[in-house]
Specification:
single chain; alpha+beta; Alpha-Beta Plaits; five-stranded antiparallel beta sheet; two-stranded antiparallel sheet
Length: 137
């Protein structure tokens, strides 16, 4: 059964706009995923205590028949292809992709929580979700 997933994109290394564009293109190419809405791009301060450059953030809504873990595997592959290396938490990154929520599906495992456990603590996610909701209604 298809559902709508909301994926957050972020970048604060290199050509940030290009990293977001590449990630959007790669997300659209995932089998059983169709991008149906895209929020505007906004610049935000980094989270955590590590000194680093500001982020460009964006959210996409996709229609998918993939389960949250299946989608996460595909998103991690896109991050690797985009030069992301997972080392230190909150470290600068070329691309960061997070499943923020699904419209009708929840998930709770040691590797993945949907809705994302930080959804209520990220005001930029709230703005982006609201923007996408306007488009999808």
């Amino acid at each position: 059964m298809d559902d709508i997933a909301f994926i957050a994109l972020g970048s604060n290394v290199g050509d940030r706009r290009q990293h977001l564009a590449d990630a959007r293109r790669r997300i659209a190419a995932i089998d059983r995923v169709a991008v149906i809405a895209v929020s505007k791009i906004e610049e935000t301060d980094p989270l955590g205590q590590m000194a680093q450059d500001r982020y460009l953030n964006q959210m996409v809504a996709v229609r998918t028949s993939l389960s949250p873990p299946e989608l996460l595997v595909a998103l991690h592959e896109i991050e690797r292809e985009g030069g992301r290396v997972r080392t230190t938490r909150w470290a600068p990154r070329s691309i960061d992709l997070d499943i923020v929520r699904y419209a009708h599906t929840t998930w709770d495992s040691s590797d993945l929580q949907v809705p994302h456990k930080e959804i209520d603590n990220r005001d930029f996610w709230q703005r982006e979700l609201a923007e996408l909701a306007e488009v999808l209604i």
